[in-house]
Structures
1.
Amino acid sequence: MTLQAKDSQSSDDPFTVLILDNEVTVSEFVMSPPLSWSRLTEQQGACRIAEGYPSLLTAEQARFEMKNWDQVSLPAIVRHLKELKGGVDYLLIGNNAGQGLPLARSLPESIIDNHAAIIYGVSLPEIKEYEKSGYRTFFRRSEAASRLFEPATGAGRPVSLFFINTIQHNELNYHDP
């Protein structure tokens, strides 16, 4: 497996949530008290925790993340997802006007069934396409963080967020929401 979400230095066992979305949406995951937050980037063929992480996801950190523009390779992310076998308790895929479909289709069925959801802004016109791939859990991005507490509490573990940016932004195509 080339996706390394767990921090090998940590002795705790958090309820690991992998978020595949774009950096503009990070503020939707800010809670009080703040959750543990790690950004994953591709390094030497693997997705690993970026330098300076984990941190706490505060409003200030979310503002910083909005302009933390990673190099994005959807084929590489798809490859990592196809190899995903463990280490992640739950996976959230941002729809982003249908841009999440190729990522959603790359997940193993065993993860889709009980460990994944599609998140969206206001509406989800692509819902039928996700349902064809086996997805049954959909909710607004603004509900995502609070929805994770039920399975994490059931597992008796604290939520820890891991994030992979899925949309390439730069000075030419970025707009501040």
Note: The helical segments are 59-66, 74-82, 101-105, 109-115, 127-132, 141-147, 149-155.
2.
Amino acid sequence: MKTRSPRLAVRALVLHQDRLLLVNAYPGGVSDLWCAPGGGVEPGSSLPENLCRELHEECGIAVAVGPLALVNEFHDPRSGFHQVDLYFRCTLTSGAPDPAWVDPADVVISRRFFARDELAGIRFKPDSLPEVAFAPPGLAHYDPLEEIVA
């Protein structure tokens, strides 16, 4: 297996009216797994700039990027894929997730806000997502390396 550098990605913890914004990025209903919106970092743009771009592409919204809240790592031991996600607290500044919005990259197929108690009825990653997202701002958390799931 060829060794590869980890991929760096940014993700947003957007709470609005005590509900957390999540997306499903599995076209064709391949998986029911939900995650925080965001994506890969493009060189030459800051982490907040990358995150704002991703939120607009995936959800059609604008956000103000706040402090770092979580560092999460996952990998696929079979392929050597390894990703480091940096989660930032964000505030919605304009727009609203529209079920009819089309992600230009055709990756995100669904987006919506979930109340904390609704998270018990869905699959999401990382496991620490509700604990971190609904906690008061403070020091950033770290989730150790885990195997990828679909």
Note: Residues 7-147 form a domain with the Nucleoside Triphosphate Pyrophosphohydrolase fold (CATH 3.90.79.10).
3.
Amino acid sequence: MRPTHRRLAATAAGLVLLPVALVGCGLTGGGDEPAAKPERAPAEEAATRSRERVQAYLDAMTAKDVAAGRSQLCALLHEGFDLGATGPNGDFADHFEVPEAAITDVRSGPRGQEVSVSVSVTAGKRKTTRPLVFTVTRDGGDWCIAGEAPGAAATPAGVVPSPAS
């Protein structure tokens, strides 16, 4: 008869302690405090930070502020930026003016956030608008521009590109 009493006592103790354990683990609605909610979802934060970095870079291009432009880039790009930013085809070349620059899209890509922009550039009397894509990633605790590449030319709505284009 003793094993039955031990089993019964163990079961009773387990039933008494079970609600205490569940409340401690948060499995019951015991707490009135809402769970800590992050300020923004990670995807939303990534898009916002990427947009901010690229906009700061575009503003620096417009103002010809090389130091401000450099500060938006990841450290790995600084040396290349220093060599080419003010060169003949650099983003900060003296003979280029940037009257307009606008972010057109932000989306997640394979290497980070891809921020598409449209940049109007004038050189003398010539004006052209070029699409660019900036790749923005997180480097440690900070966001930075990790790459810049030509973007796809936008096709006007309703126009189907020909095989020659």
Note: The radius of gyration is 28 Å.
4.
Amino acid sequence: MHKFLYKLEDISKKVFKQLSGLKEEDFQTALGIEFRKNKIDFMREAGLEVFYDNHPIALHELDFLVLSCMDLKEPIIIETKVSSGIAEEHRQQLRNYLRSAVKNDNAIIKKIKIGLVLNFKKNEVFTESIRPRKKTQDIEIEVWSYEKNKFTKHYSNKKVEEKS
């Protein structure tokens, strides 16, 4: 999965550089364009039944369902966000999707055990400014898995900022 994450981070930085300050849907459209250019097989807004007590209660749309490619052996969910940072509500949405995926009838969705939250920072990038722009991390990625009724965080590209 390392090759895929490296490529995703590279693509996401390119998208952010051109679209900072826009809506989540704009980032998703641009990511889809980049996925096609990079031969990453995906489905956008794939339907996922969400379950309560083993009963389907709603149909949600995944931002991206990425199929096996590069060094991905199984399909994964990508949930995109545009926010000041990855929040607990973003993680919870992904957890609900991962928990429900195994209960779906679709053979591809049933295999999903891993998902990630990709957050584009909600800030504007200016190349010319009166003040120098504070160095920030423009995208954040967290990778989570769900197996045996347990969620595990496998990866985060978030750097801990040093206090001055």
Note: Confidence is low (pLDDT under 50) at residues 160-164.
